[in-house]
Every structure is written in C-alpha cells, then in structure tokens.
Amino acid sequence: MIKLIALVDSRWGVSRDEKIPWSFQEDRVFFREKTINSIVVMGRNTFSSIHYRPLENRVNLIVSKTMKSTPGAKVFRSLEEIVDKYADFWLIGGASLYKHALKNDLVHYALITRVNKDHGADKFIDAANLEHFSQKIIFNAKQYSILEMIKSDVIDRVQQ
Ligand SMILES: NC(=O)c1ccc[n+]([C@@H]2O[C@H](COP(=O)([O-])OP(=O)(O)OC[C@H]3O[C@@H](n4cnc5c(N)ncnc54)[C@H](OP(=O)(O)O)[C@@H]3O)[C@@H](O)[C@H]2O)c1
C-alpha cells in the first residue's frame, strides 16, 4: 500500500521558504511512530531539508534524476521505479512528490495532520486530488486534527 503522510496548515500548505514553521513535537512523535521500521520515500529537496541525513531505523529511498548515490539511502530516478519494486511504503514529501503521486493516482492511504492556522505557506498539497478519498478524523484538538484518508476503490476492494 502506498501511504502518504504530511503535516499541513489550514490551507493545505506543506512548507514556507523551504521550512515547516508550524511543525510541533507531538506531530514529530506521531510521524516517527507511524514510519519507524518502514520504507520512507522522499524527493531530493526534502532529503536536502534534513541535511542529507537518512531517517534512522527506516529504509530511505530518494527520488531524484540528478542525485548520485548517497550513504544510507537509495536513489531512484522516478517514483514509478519505486512502485515497481516496493509494495508498501510511506511517501513523506515534499510538495512535488506528493503532487506527482496524487495526480497519477498512486496513493491509497493518507494520514494528514492539519493545523488550524494559516501559516502563509508557499507550497501546497492540492486537496482536490484527495476528493476520492473517504475521510475520518482520528484525532481532534484545539490547534490541529489528524485525518485518515482511504481511497474509495481501496475500501471497495477490501470489502469485496
Ligand atoms: N509538511 C510536510 O509534511 C512536509 C513533508 C516533507 C517535506 N516538506 C517540505 O517540502 C519542501 C520540499 O518540497 P519540494 O516540492 O520543493 O521538493 P521535493 O518533492 O522534496 O523534491 C523535489 C525534487 O525531487 C525530485 N523529484 C520529485 N518528484 C519527482 C518525480 N516525479 N520524478 C523524478 N524526480 C522527482 C526532483 O529532484 P531532481 O531535481 O534531483 O531530479 C525534484 O527536484 C521542503 O521545504 C520540505 O520542508 C513538507
């Protein structure tokens, strides 16, 4: 299953000036719990934003047409190459990789932490691409909620 995980602001922003100023500790813990011992897939800019340091206790796969091999991570030229090789992974960003995956209908499941404030983001997830997902709020607090989204045809397949 291809699973997307993201922390967005109220306008579905994913970053501002290449950073995520609305990041907070509980979400970092949540992200870690969900992705630990799994495969994580990220674009080159996201890998750069974590200083090219692979996430611990996870298999790190980077999508890049320009990057050479890098210690502790594997580089693939396209997301499709990863899809061909791995059946189950977390897509952890950033904006362009989320966009590519959603537009090409590659995502089956998403966990979105959504903060209730507009942080003036300059990169976004296009929420229209999530219209075919059924949505459940699995956590709700004053400042943020966590949405679990499952693609409708995945639910249909499971129920058949
Ligand atoms: N809010 C969140 O949950 C969250 C999560 C992760 C990241 N972010 C933020 O998102 C920002 C980065 O987003 P971004 O859109 O600039 O970059 P990105 O998606 O992380 O990386 C873009 C690069 O990845 C490669 N790439 C992406 N899609 C590709 C595709 N379909 N095929 C081949 N290569 C592909 C390309 O590398 P080459 O140019 O080398 O070919 C491209 O230049 C950062 O500021 C980060 O902090 C936010």
Keywords:
alpha/beta, 160 residues, binds NADP nicotinamide-adenine-dinucleotide phosphate, 26% helix
Structural description of this entry:
The protein has 160 residues and is α/β, with parallel strands linked by helices. The protein has one domain (2-159): 3-Layer(aba) Sandwich (Dihydrofolate Reductase, subunit A). The chain has 5 helices and 10 strands. The chain has helices at 25-35, 44-49, 79-85, 95-103, 152-159, and strands spanning 2-8, 13-15, 39-43, 59-63, 73-76, 89-91, 109-115, 123-124, 133-140, 144-151. The strands form 2 sheets. Strands 5-4-3-6-1-7-10-9 form an 8-stranded mixed beta sheet. Strands 2-8 form a two-stranded antiparallel ribbon. The two termini are 17 Å apart. It binds NADP nicotinamide-adenine-dinucleotide phosphate. NADP nicotinamide-adenine-dinucleotide phosphate binds at residues 6-7, 14-15, 18-20, 42-46, 49, 63-67, 78-79, 92-97, 100, 123.
Described by the principal axes of the CA atoms, the overall outline is globular
Low-confidence stretches: none
Provide the domain count.
1
Mean pLDDT: 96
- Find the structural class using helix and strand composition: alpha/beta
CATH topology name, in short, is Dihydrofolate Reductase, subunit A
Query: What CATH architecture do you see?
Result: 3-Layer(aba) Sandwich
CATH superfamily placement: Dihydrofolate Reductase, subunit A
Strand content: 25-35%
How many helices does DSSP assign? 5
